[in-house]
């Protein structure tokens, strides 16, 4: 699979980008390695890679966003911090360029628009014989990206050899010329990790509920979403107030962090929710928290295909979610959960109350949710992505 560019590079005396075993080298580049959905997907991809076919390394842009570095390193994949202190700190671009030159890579795979839009400039600055193939994965919705990044992304994306999206909703949001060449790869989650949690779920459930102070008979409703406007926390808090006013024995817990923390905590206080709704902050044990829940809720105003939703189904949780993005095609109303219109705290509260009052319904929806999760297998997605790498490398011969 040795490409013409690699041959020219050797003839010029350049470093061979292949590893010691002769395997193609792949560099995954992402903005952060914090607790985000795309970041967690990247760790799972690394864990499920074909170690005999490719050598992987990972580079991340923002130095402070490193919570998942230990998890990534635990997969055996080397991690490089490109050293930026913030979005405006572009010192990471020459750092990426140096990495691409020495040791060099066959493929650079960008994830998320900021890393791709700016990182492609480093690739383009290389001599043609040293340029790796470029793959880009769009994890969210194209039109929700900040305008300057979106414009730069659009201007540079034509250089990529492959464009991947994680859902049909993400593909539909692309500009028409890009939509035609995009390939949908539903990334999924590590179902083996979920299976391990399910084996000990009863004990984990008791531990989580004790930790959160949830009485034995109360229904625990959990969301996993960063504290951002698009996640609809204002709607979720309003729904929680309605549920409390109905006198239902329901507690809410939210895993996530973000720029709206102070604003949402103030709204929580003004609504007088007290310990009926707890913000848990950033957590490394998302699956464990979900295992303690009775219902998963997502109040988002827009989404692609959220990782937390896939994780919830992999643990057999019934779902209450809004009809946005790919959500209604994954969680079918009345089959794996209840789907409501976005922005409606009354509808969200009604759906939560319905599930809270009907244990048999929760059990039925939960069983269907677990069966549905079979479609979200990161091992299969990783194999498909590596198949694309192989196709691209084969095309360079």
Task: Based on the model shown, name its key terms.
397 residues; six-stranded parallel β-sheet; 44% helix; 18 helices; Rossmann fold; seven-stranded parallel β-sheet; 13 strands; alpha/beta
- Radius of gyration (CA) equals 22 Å
Q: On the 0-100 scale, what is the average pLDDT? A: 92
% residues in beta strands: 15-25%
What structural category characterises the helix and strand content? alpha/beta
Continuous helix count: 18
Indicate how many domains the architecture comprises: 2
Q: What is the general shape?
A: elongated
N-to-C terminal Cα separation, in Å?
A: 6 Å
CATH architecture of the largest domain: 3-Layer(aba) Sandwich
Assign a percent range to the helix content: 40-55%
Question: What is the number of beta strands?
Answer: 13
CATH topology of the largest domain: Rossmann fold
Secondary-structure blueprint of this entry?
Elements: H1 4-11, E1 25-30, H2 37-47, E2 55-62, H3 69-74, E3 79-84, H4 92-104, E4 107-111, H5 113-124, E5 133-138, H6 147-156, E6 162-165, H7 168-172, H8 176-179, E7 183-184, H9 191-199, H10 201-212, E8 219-224, H11 233-245, E9 250-255, H12 261-271, E10 277-281, H13 286-291, E11 295-298, H14 307-314, E12 319-322, H15 327-330, E13 337-340, H16 345-356, H17 359-372, H18 378-395
Parallel strand pairs: 1-2, 1-4, 2-3, 4-5, 5-6, 6-7, 8-9, 8-11, 9-10, 11-12, 12-13
């Amino acid at each position: 699979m040795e490409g013409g560019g690699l041959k020219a590079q050797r003839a010029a005396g350049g470093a061979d980008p292949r590893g010691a075993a002769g395997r193609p080298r792949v560099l995954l580049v992402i903005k952060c390695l914090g607790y985000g959905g795309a970041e967690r997907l990247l760790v799972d991809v690394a864990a499920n890679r074909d170690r005999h076919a490719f050598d992987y390394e990972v580079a991340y842009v923002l130095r402070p966003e490193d919570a998942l570095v230990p998890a990534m390193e635990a997969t055996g994949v080397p991690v490089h911090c490109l050293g930026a202190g913030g979005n405006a700190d572009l010192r990471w671009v020459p750092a990426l360029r140096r990495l691409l030159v020495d040791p060099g890579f066959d493929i650079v795979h960008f994830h998320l628009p900021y890393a791709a839009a700016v990182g492609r400039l480093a690739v383009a600055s290389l001599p043609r014989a040293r340029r790796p193939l470029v793959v880009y994965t769009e994890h969210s919705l194209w039109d929700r990206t900040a305008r300057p990044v979106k414009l730069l992304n659009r201007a540079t994306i034509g250089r990529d050899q492959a464009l991947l999206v994680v859902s049909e909703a993400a593909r539909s949001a692309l500009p028409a010329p890009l939509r035609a060449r995009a390939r949908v790869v539903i990334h999924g989650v590590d179902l083996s990790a979920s299976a391990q949690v399910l084996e000990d779920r009863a004990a984990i459930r008791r531990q989580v509920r004790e930790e959160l102070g949830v009485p034995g008979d109360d229904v625990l409703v959990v969301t996993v979403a960063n504290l951002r406007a698009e996640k609809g926390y204002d709607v979720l808090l309003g729904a929680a107030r309605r549920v409390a006013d109905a006198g239902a024995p329901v507690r809410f817990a939210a895993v996530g962090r973000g720029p709206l923390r102070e604003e949402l905590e103030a709204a929580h206080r003004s609504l007088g929710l007290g310990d009926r709704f707890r913000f848990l902050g950033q957590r490394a044990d998302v699956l464990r928290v979900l295992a303690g829940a009775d219902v998963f809720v997502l109040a988002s105003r827009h989404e692609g295909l959220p990782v937390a939703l896939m994780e919830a189904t992999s643990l057999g949780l019934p779902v209450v979610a809004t009809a946005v993005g790919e959500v209604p095609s994954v969680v079918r109303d009345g089959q794996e959960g209840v789907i409501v219109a976005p922005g409606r705290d009354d509808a969200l509260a009604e759906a939560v109350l319905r599930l809270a009052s009907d244990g048999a319904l929760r059990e039925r929806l939960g069983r269907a949710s677990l069966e549905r999760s079979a479609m979200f297998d990161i091992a299969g997605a990783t194999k498909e992505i590596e198949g694309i790498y192989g196709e691209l490398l084969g095309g360079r011969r």
